[in-house]
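Re: the multi-chain job from yesterday

Posting the exact lines I submitted so nobody has to dig through the queue logs.
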Amino acid sequence: MARSPEKPDRTDPGQFQPGLSLGFLFFRQGAMGYLGLGLGAVGLGSAILLLAVSGWFITAAGVAGLSPAALYAFNYLRPAALIRTLAICRTLALYGERIVSHDGILRLLQHLRLAVFDGLSRMTRYRLGGLGSGDLMQRMLADIDLLDQWPLRGLAPWVWAVSLSTVFAGFLFWISAPLFCVFLVVMLLIFVLLPVTVSSLAMDLARFQTGKAGERRQFLTETLAGLITLRTTGALDSRLNTLKEMDHALETSRWRLHGLRHCFPDSDWACLVPGPVDDALFGGRCRAFR
Amino acid sequence: MIPPAYEKTLDISDPAVVSGRQKKGTVTRHSTPDQEKQAGTWLKGQVGQVTSLLWLSAGAGATASVCMVVQCYFLAHLLAGLAMENRFDRHLLWLLALPFLLRPCFLAIKELLGTNAGRVLRRRLRKSLLETIAAAGPHRSRIAGDGSLSAMVLEQVDAMDDYFVRYLPHKILAVATPVIIVTAVLPHSPMVAGLLTLTAPLIPFFMYLVGNEAVRAGRRQFRALSMLADRIRTMLQGLPVLRQLDAVPPARQTLAAASDRLRIKTLKVLRMAFLSSAVLELFASLGIAVAAVYLGMGLLGYVPWARGTIPVPLSSALFILLLIPEFYMALRRLGADYHSRAQAMAAAVSLMPLIHARSRVFSGGTGIWVPAGPPGIQMKQVSWRPSGRNRVLHDIDLDIAPGERVGLVGPSGSGKTSLLHLILGFDRPSEGQLLVDGKPLDSLNPDRFRQQIAWLGQRPEWFSGTVAQNLGLARPHAGKDAFRQALEAAGAWAFIEALPDGMHTPLGEGGRGFSGGQRQRLALARALLQDAWLWILDEPGAHLDPETAVAVRHHVGQVTRGKTLVLAAHHLEGLEWLDTLVRLDNGRITGIERFCHGPVS
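And the result, structure tokens for all chains:
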């Protein structure tokens, strides 16, 4: 692997200690990453369209049934075919997305393993000696495997949510500009303001949890190692109580972090907000339908 | 869906596991079906303690499903009114808001109750495991190493959380929600209700078929991962040698080939594993498509068996259409949470040694022993066989008079430490009797009994905190003078006084920051502060240089005058003050020498 001497190698653990950039973890996947995102968007879009087209088809059929002329003119073959196509498209695209994105991730993990090995092989004997073989194994297998969390569970769902919301916003704009504005405000709240306000709190809680969990482990390990002394001095009970308090603090923090998730309303909430606004502004019928 | 025998090693519904990542709580070793059966039974027993909370949680979830049905009903009528009569019913909109607000509330209650059930179980379980470990004392090493034990108490217990909090309520909801939806659909369209009832059992069936194949592929992938791990371990261990031989590039190529094989095999498993979720996806899509086409055609009057009539009106049709995705969603949620069952089983299997150990741990009696002075200890024909293994102590007859200081000497494995552990009450003799002040030791409350003992081990045990916190373990509220007296008597005052923070100097893990000799003197001060009549010492100063060790032993001799003392030792230097020397070999007493103020030879 030829590397420019000026630029730090972001995959070398010896040179890039704080962590890999999140962008690197996506872009190193190459075309597979983009293809996975695209297929996922197609799959989720198909899932939404399947319901939307089905709803429209049923409604249009109901309306067409009111007059014989409309009934005669109604072409039911095209929407029925579209519904079937969307159903198949949804299944295949979501299956394809999972395969493609995981293939990209597996290639990324493979690359990272080799890069870590390269970094370790360039380390000085002194620095290498400072790492136990358990540490090194942890880096080569478990730690690297954790890196797939960001592209798979962080980036991809965010991209899908934003892109599908944009499409829906476009649709609302086509129906009614005020409704679009309302939706835009709600979207900005959900995708920008809420993460900004909640994320610092969530990060604080996450940091607290990580620190407390380490503290608890250290405390328990010392307790186990010193059991005889603790039992002969009668200090075990107070030590177990402290452990219980640590547990309690961790549980409370977990519960708070969990509660923060409820700050993010379901997307269907956001999509339905224009409903009451439509009722308030246009008496239930937005301008496009009048 | 997946045969339980394979669950603990592979969870095909979770790509993370299939891709080789070891989730917390999963075990990489294979467990026997018998172990899993025991673990399953134990897990059921645990669930039994919080059944009511779990049912309440599922009940809240089912109520949320009812809210969802009501919400779909109002939404369908609102849309149908708009489409058919160009009428926007405001009442319906505000009625719709009610279930919309109630549903998240019930879901939050469901989660709260489930979390509470998990918390109750976690606390109980952690407490019980810690009690077992604490009762086992030094014998805990027979169960597992301290690292594994701490992982059992922390990670393995936490690994079961999702099973209690999510999987079990969702298991009930996977039945309740479809039943609620079919019941709601039935009056509107028996045809669609029948379709849903027919497809529901097909989903687990197909997922089972696909899941079995994925498990087979997963086992092959597991071997590839093990090979990669072995290869990496070998290469890392031999990295300095590889560098010396300039053989890093070929090693890198080998690693690249192994990683590539792992990637290909993992992807093969993933293709099968994802098929199982694709089956669910396909059924959900087809369910919506078939129902939509049927309902639409019905509204047009084109259904062959009801030509010219409308079997399902528009509002009902929309209502059904909105409900169908929710019908399959309940099954999908169960599938998504299925890995937590595998995770809990794996955790339960790994906890089994500790749980079984509970029955073997000696819990002691209830008698309270309050010594008025140095106690006498009698051992009558004491034999000890730890957990049915070979006998470690044979027919020990020993009478220790009040205030007598006894040394146990013998080669490694002669039974010195085992005898000390029996006196400490961490186990009872397999045969014979051990009496303290004439009372059988197994009739005494072991916790209260041990608190009357000053203990000094080979390597004194220290905890993160200050010197004062460590010294005052037995007497946290002792005054400064008491601390100073104890430190002076132990010969530790000089170096503690010289420290800038004195007794408030932080003591690192294991006593880091102090030399071995200083730690022994501090341990002696801690024991002195306990002011006990009975002292038990296991080779004090064993890991110190000879001069320091002798000095420490001399100090022990000075401070234990008038106490009953039992001490295990390899070396006799510095132990001239002992009253009696008991020679042990192969678990038997080979000789007893008593001295009257004379030197020990």
